[in-house]
């Protein structure tokens, strides 16, 4: 496959047909056609293409020549396993490789869970994520992973390699593919945490035993935060507070504009109460800032058959539309995300149970959240103020997380819309 053939194909290509998942939040672009900016050939028939659409958005696409057609490479085509055998780059290439470990593997299969990007398992030993959108958010995972590696944080999949591309205008390196160890015989929290609650409701486990995991993962999060803090931290000031308040309002505005139907109407009913609350809070003595996970929820916590936990996906929030994706943040953002995901587990199970067990589910949510808060030890151990003590700031981030859940449902997973719709009232009661 030659670059000229790619250019000819891309001239009339539709970007939505070449992305791994549709993005309903993208503005419909009537102008088909993509401009080829750069190319790296993984094999003679597979190329990683950097392209630009007529709106100026830049994308990374693994494309394959399949007979007389060009299409996106999928699991089984060999594009992902070819990442493990990348050789030398041309001196002028804007592509580069960060290598921790590599070995040839055969066999590809799709991960098969809901994601905003595409992950493919290679030979049951490694897993690769392709980053379609070339932006700072995708690149934010590497500083986090490198900080955890430096601190010898072991409760995450070990990195194998990262393929980057340097943007011509800024010369900034952007992540286009990342490969790490595949954690076999594990399930994420949208399976095992949901199962914990269902076992409690079915009488198989007690309330205390079914929420004990929250204390365990609090210790894991504490260790991760300690590793992040050892890499980089700084005091916060009032200008940071102003950024948080601005981003809160901007996320609320976007959620109000984007959330359709009766769900959007219910969100609109709460608007005045939310805005009145945010206008009246004072965040004094803001907490210290450091690297954070950026999209922490139970789905990012894997649990093995032996009960061991590990943390995955350090790419940041998929619907964070702010520009500060690489900045230092308060730890409360991570904690707010995890607290709300425990609530979301309850909403998922409530839907499965057809509205039954509402009191028991509320009790389970409360106890799981309480155990998480009581067992988080990082800040207390090093003598800092407990991030849970910044109640208004924590609540601000919890509310903002729900706004982002509305946006995520609208742009990526419509069937998720019931979750923030059910979770938000419990937060509104607290303001």
Describe the overall structure.
The structure is a single chain. By secondary structure, the protein is an alpha+beta fold. It folds into 2 domains: 3-181, no CATH class; 186-428, Aminoglycoside phosphotransferase (APH), C-terminal lobe (Aminoglycoside 3'-phosphotransferase, Chain: A, domain 2, Alpha-Beta Complex). Helix content is 43%, strand content 18%. The chain contains 15 helices and 16 strands. It has helices at residues 3-10, 15-18, 79-82, 136-139, 141-150, 189-201, 207-210, 212-231, 238-258, 261-280, 331-352, 358-375, 378-381, 391-411, 418-428; strands at 35-41, 46-52, 58-66, 69-72, 95-99, 108-110, 118-122, 126-130, 159-166, 173-181, 186-188, 233-234, 289-290, 301-304, 309-311, 329-330. A 6-stranded antiparallel beta sheet has the order 5-9-10-8-7-6. It has a 4-stranded antiparallel beta sheet with strand order 1-2-3-4, covered by helices on one side. The protein has a 3-stranded antiparallel beta sheet with strand order 11-14-15. α9 (238-258) packs parallel to α14 (391-411). The longest helix has 22 residues, at 331-352. It is globular and about 60 Å long. The termini are far apart.
């Amino acid at each position: 496959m030659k670059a000229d053939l790619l250019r000819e194909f891309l001239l009339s290509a539709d970007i939505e047909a070449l992305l791994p998942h549709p993005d309903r939040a993208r503005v419909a672009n009537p102008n088909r056609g993509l401009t080829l900016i750069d190319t790296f050939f993984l094999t003679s028939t597979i190329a990683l293409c950097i392209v630009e659409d007529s709106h100026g958005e830049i994308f990374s696409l693994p494309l394959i020549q399949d007979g007389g057609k060009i299409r996106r490479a999928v699991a089984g085509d060999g594009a992902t396993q070819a990442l493990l055998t990348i050789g030398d780059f041309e001196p002028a290439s804007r592509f580069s490789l960060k290598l921790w470990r590599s070995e040839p593997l055969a066999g590809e299969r799709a991960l098969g869970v809901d994601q905003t990007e595409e992950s493919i398992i290679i030979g049951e030993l490694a897993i690769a994520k392709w980053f379609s959108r070339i932006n700072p958010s995708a690149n934010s995972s590497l500083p986090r992973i490198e900080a955890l590696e430096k601190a010898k944080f072991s409760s995450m999949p070990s990195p194998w390699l990262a393929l980057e591309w340097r943007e011509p205008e800024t010369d900034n390196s952007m992540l286009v593919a990342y490969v790490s160890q595949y954690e076999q015989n594990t399930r994420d929290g949208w399976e095992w945490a949901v199962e914990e609650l269902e076992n409690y409701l079915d009488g198989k486990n007690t309330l205390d035993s079914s929420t004990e995991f929250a204390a365990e993962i609090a210790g894991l999060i504490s260790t991760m935060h300690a590793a992040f803090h050892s890499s980089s931290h700084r005091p916060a000031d009032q200008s940071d507070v102003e950024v948080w308040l601005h981003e809160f309002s901007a996320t609320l505005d976007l959620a109000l504009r984007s959330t359709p139907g009766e769900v959007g109407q219910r969100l609109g009913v709460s608007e005045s109460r939310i805005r009145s609350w945010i206008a009246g809070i004072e965040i004094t003595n803001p907490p210290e800032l450091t690297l954070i996970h950026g999209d922490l929820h139970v789905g990012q916590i894997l649990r093995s058959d032996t009960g061991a936990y590990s943390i995955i996906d350090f790419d940041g929030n998929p619907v964070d539309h702010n520009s500060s994706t690489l900045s230092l943040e308060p730890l409360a953002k991570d904690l707010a995300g995890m607290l709300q995901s425990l609530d979301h587990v309850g909403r998922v199970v409530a839907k499965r149970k057809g509205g039954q067990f509402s009191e028991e589910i509320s009790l389970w949510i409360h106890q799981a959240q309480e155990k998480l808060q009581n067992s988080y030890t990082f800040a207390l151990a090093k003598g800092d103020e407990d991030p849970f003590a910044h109640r208004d700031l924590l609540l601000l981030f919890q509310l903002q997380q729900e706004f982002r859940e509305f946006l995520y449902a609208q742009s990526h997973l419509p069937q998720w819309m019931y979750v923030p719709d059910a979770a938000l009232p419990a937060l509104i009661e607290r303001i």
